[in-house]
Amino acid sequence: MSCSGVDSQTKVCAVIGRPVAHSLSPLLHNTAFFYYGLNWVYLAFEVENLKGAIEGVRGFGVKGLNVTIPYKTDVLAYLDGLDMLAEKIGAVNTIVNHSGHLKGYNTDAQGFLKVLSKEGIDPRGEGFIILGAGGAARAISFALAQSGARLSVLNRTPERALELSRKLEEEFGRPVPALELNIDNLKFALDNAAVIVNTTSRGMSPDVEGTPVPGELLRPGLTVLDIVYSPLKTRLLREAEAAGAKVVGGLDMLVYQAGLSFELWTGLKAPLEVMMAQGRNFLEPKKLERKNSLALTGFMGAGKSSVARLVSSMLGKELRSTDGLVEEAAQKPILRIFSEDGEAYFRELEMRAVKEVLEGDNLVIDCGGGVVLNQLNILNLKKKAHIFYLKAGLDTCLKRAEREVRPLLGHDPGEVFRLFSLREPLYEEAADVVIETSGLSPEEVARKVAKEYESLS
Description:
Number of helices: 18
Distance between the termini: 27 Å
Number of domains: 3
Number of strands: 17
CATH architecture of the largest domain: 3-Layer(aba) Sandwich
Helix content: 40-55%
């Protein structure tokens, strides 16, 4: 997600770790911020000096942090307080800044249990093999032990596996075997377990051919969960699936724990469906194929409605307008919806309108200017339509705003500029094709759109 709407009032959250260049967290959290229209931004910082980074959180007033490898346990020393669950686990993946008082939480544990629930996996009495002994392994092991599962911990460094094992045994009073991660010990552990949980980084991009479990040890009847989310299906999961095992990838856990972090920072319910769809759309391999519908997006003044009518005629496609559907649903014009019911209600109707219009086929869709503010709208549109961004310069938009009353603008050029700055990168990001419209007539723009559409293969 782009951050072009950042100003002096923007609230900052971030993920810290080493490395973090691969992190999907900025995409997920910025998607959630945009969903609610929050003036927040989420960044990624690769950190060498952990103490200095935490001091910076206090000094700069950063609202919240996610903490990833290798700092989930080390960061405890620099916090002012811990949530009870995080204290028991001994690892933190989320920090909330309460006016300079930094409190640590662990959302990995709850996120993992949400995955099990979604997949219909009951951990009570079941045998689980935990691969790894880092912060994520601590959280997952604690959640499983608390739920009544039987555990074994395998790690390349047996001392770390033993450390985690002792902590679990002290907390729950049940034996937890700790073994070095090798073929012989995997064979032994698999005799008493039906679920493997990989919490190591083996198989994560760019190490896509890495795997912590040799394929010959995998079998039908096993369930294999891998918290690695990039690629969506790791070598471990591919080989487990080929062997007849049930497989669960890491994206769900990432989104669930991210959603819990978002709720701690903002107090709002995380838009999990939108976050999941955005993450999957980013990670899935892209296939280019011509769709039989096209959607026109752009800021006011770009001429979407005029161009849409012309393109509909040129290509012989039905014309549909999301704003028109919104007005039909509300039984009032858009200006009254904004003044009487507010923008949030309008955006909810707009999201329903996008879903409704996509029930049709062979369409030219005239999209409202703010449709790009909700990533779920874009993801739904892309399922059936190519998105064309009709790009107009700000001067054109200002001239149009002077002539027409717009629900969000009135006649305030400053508000036009703010919205233009926020939305322009969203239009660019969503577009399959960008059409420059400045200085062109609607007929000229429509011909360009039709030509570009026909050239898609």
